[in-house]
Predict the structure.
Amino acid sequence: MTGKEIEIVEVGPRDGLQNESTELSTAAKVEFINRVIAAGTRRVEVTSFVHPRRVPQMADAEAILAALPRRDGVFYVGLVLNRRGFDRAAAAGCNEIGMAVMASDTFNKRNQGVTTDESIAAWLDIAAAAHAAGIRPQVTISTAFGCPFEGEVPVDRVVEVARKVAQAAPFEIAIADTIGVGVPSQVTELMGRIGDALPGMALRGHFHNTRNTGLANAYAAVEAGASALDSSVGGIGGCPFAPAATGNIPTEDLLYMLQRMGIRTGVDLDQTIVTGRWLQERLGRPVPGMLVKAGGFPAGQTAA
């Protein structure tokens, strides 16, 4: 695969921190974001614009954006779930927004209080407003590989949702294993089916490591033609509304795998490992990522 390039979307500041019992200060969150940008990341999910009663860890969304300098070629991604959230993200200065639509109706109602079709209708409105405002819109199809309440999610259902959200002309669609139940063969089939249904659409993978298949699924996504992958420094994260869901695939572990495969990301592995160690000190607990413990290879290439 030498010569191939994959874009890394760092989701630790949002998807990572939203499920942590230790709440970092706004200043620490801003330092976290600045660290991953200094390492070469160009897309960072910096926060979510949801009601603070539902996700109190994200209550300082506007303050984070206010503290971040504008940088050419860097996209500050805000997660939104409704038009009110989008309006806040736009006013705060996000230059990319992402919305999540659940393939599972039950999970969509638990997570967002509305049906999947109602979320799709909201997405169509939000994407139109984003295009008009010069903000890049992308959408994630969550619970694409399984739902904690409904069980298996049919591939046809995910493809149907993908067709519907594509009507708003997102620049990218992400396929998310929200609860970490997927395996590589599912990734291959699902991304292949969506690619056939929506030729030319950029696809991104979002994998949780709940059952230790996250990196294998990321590899399968690369093989299936994904152009980007989500990951979280240290492997922190999870969904507050998904029982037993654990963290995202660790950014540094993903970088190590891709780097050794000859795939370019533009993100510095050593700096990312250092940030993982910094993060676990701030959280006061070990993070799940393996390279934070083991370091890179050959030995001695990663700073302490």
